[in-house]
Amino acid sequence: MIRIITGITEVLKRELRIIFQDRSIKSMILLAPLFYSLFYASIYFNKTERDVPVVVINMDKSTMSEKLIKNIDANENIKVMAEVDGYSTAKDLIYKEKAQAVIIIPKDFESSLKTYRSTTVKLLLNTTRFLVSNDINKAVNEVVLDFNNELKVKALEQKGISFNQSVIISEPLKEEVKLLFNPSETYGDFLIPAVLILILQQTLLMGLAESVSKERERNTFNDLIKRGNNSLTASIFGKGLFYLILFTSYAFMFYTIHFSVFSINQKGSWPLVLFITLIFVISVIFIGMFAASFIKSKMLSLQIMALSSYLIFFLSGYSWPQLGMPGLFQIISQFIPFTPFISAFVRITQMGAGLSDVMPQVVQLFILAIAGFIALYFRFKSMHRVSRLGIPK
User: Fold this and answer.
1) What is the mean pLDDT of residues 118-131?
2) Largest CB tally within 10 Å, which of 160, 172, 178, 393?
3) CA-to-CA distance for 135 and 353, rounded, in angstroms?
4) For residue 80, what are the β-bridge partners?
C-alpha cells in the first residue's frame, strides 16, 4: 500500500510538471473552463426572448381590430413593429428577419363579431426559428382567447345576464396549469445547466487527452510507469488525481457561483449533487485516458475530443428524446458518462429528486467508472509490455 501511495505521489508531481510546462494543456484545464462557462452561459443570461417583432395586416381598420392589436402588443413576448398594407410587404419583412410573424385581421372583423358571426384571425409564423415561433403562437392564442371571452361576456350581459354568470357561461370549463419546474418557461433555465456540465466534461477530456497522447508522442510511457513504482494502478491514479481535484472544484464553483449569477434553481441536495459529480468526473477520467491512449498525436487528440462535444450533447437525449433516435444511437449513448449524469443532475437540481429517484443513473455511472478503470488498466499493461519489448508504437 505504501508503495502505491508513494507511486501516486510521484506520478502526481510528474503530471503537475507536465501541465505547467505545457501551455496548451495549462490553458485548456485552467482557463478554458472559466472562460467558456461564463461566455456560453452569458449568451442565455436573459433566458427568454421578449418583444419579438411581428407585423399586422389590418384589413378592417375598425375600433375592435385596433383594440385586438393593442392587446397583442401589450403581451410581453410580442412587439407589433408595424401595420402594413399588403402581404408582399409583410413577406419581405419575414424574409429579412425583421419580423417573425404576420397577423392578418380580415375586412369583416368588427361587423362579423357584432352580428354574432364567426371570423378568423390568421397567424403566419416563421417556424425556421421554432422556439420563437412557439412563443408567438402561445402569446397570440392567449390574447385571442381572452378577447373572445370578453366578447362572449358582453353579449351575454346585453341579454340581461349578470356579469358573474356571464363569465361562467362564456367559460364553463377552465384549465388550471401549474408549472412544477422552470416556472418562467425560459430556455436559459433549461439549457444553462447542461451547457455547464458539457463544458466541464469536454475541457477535462481535452486537457487529459493531450497529456496522455503526449506520453505516446514523446515515448515517455515507461517513465510514467517507473515513477509509479512500476505499479499500473499508481500510475493511473497519480496521473488522474490532479484532474479529479481540479474539475470537482470547478463543478462546485459552477453549482454555487454560476447558479447564483445566472439565477438557476437548485432544489435538490448539495451532498447528493457533489456525490454523483465525483463519480461522473472519475468515469470521464478513466474513459478519457483509455480513448486518448490510442492517439499518438497531442494535437489530434485535442481535435477529436473537441469535435465530440456536439455528438455527446445530442446523443445524451437532452435536446431530443432518446426514444426518437435510432436504436444504435441509443445504445452508444449509454457508454457516455454525460448521458446518465445529465439526466440525474437535472432531476436533482431542477426537480428536487432524491437518491432513490436517480439510482439507475448512479449505478450506471459506477459501472462506467469501473469498466473504464479495468479497460484502462489492461490498456496500460499492454502499452507497458510493448514499450519494454521495444516494439515501435
Assistant:
1) 86
2) 393
3) 29
4) 54
Check residue 206 and give its pLDDT.
94
pLDDT, tens digit, 9 for 90 and up, residues 223-236: 888 888 888 999 99
**Burial label, 218 (beta-carbon count in 10 A; 0-12, 13-18, 19+):** exposed
Please name every residue paired with 124 in a beta bridge, in sequence order, or none if there are none: 102
Q: How confident is the model at residue 338 (pLDDT cuts 50, 70, 90)?
A: very high
Nearest to 101 by CA among 129, 61, 142: 129
Region 163-184: mean pLDDT is 72
**What's the rounded Cα separation, in Å, for the pair 211 and 86?**
63
Instruction: Dig out the grid coordinates for 1 from the structure.
Output: 500500500
The CA distance from 135 to 146, in Å, is 17
Residue 215 and residue 47: Cα distance in Å, rounded? 43
Q: Helices 23-30 and 32-43: crossing angle, nearest 10°? A: 40
pTM for this predicted structure:
0.83
Rounded CA separation 325/330 (Å): 6
Structural domains in the chain plus CATH codes: 2-45+185-389 (no CATH), 52-170 (3.40.1710.10)
CA distance linking residue 288 with residue 22, whole number of Å: 19
The Cα–Cα gap between 104 and 80 comes to 12
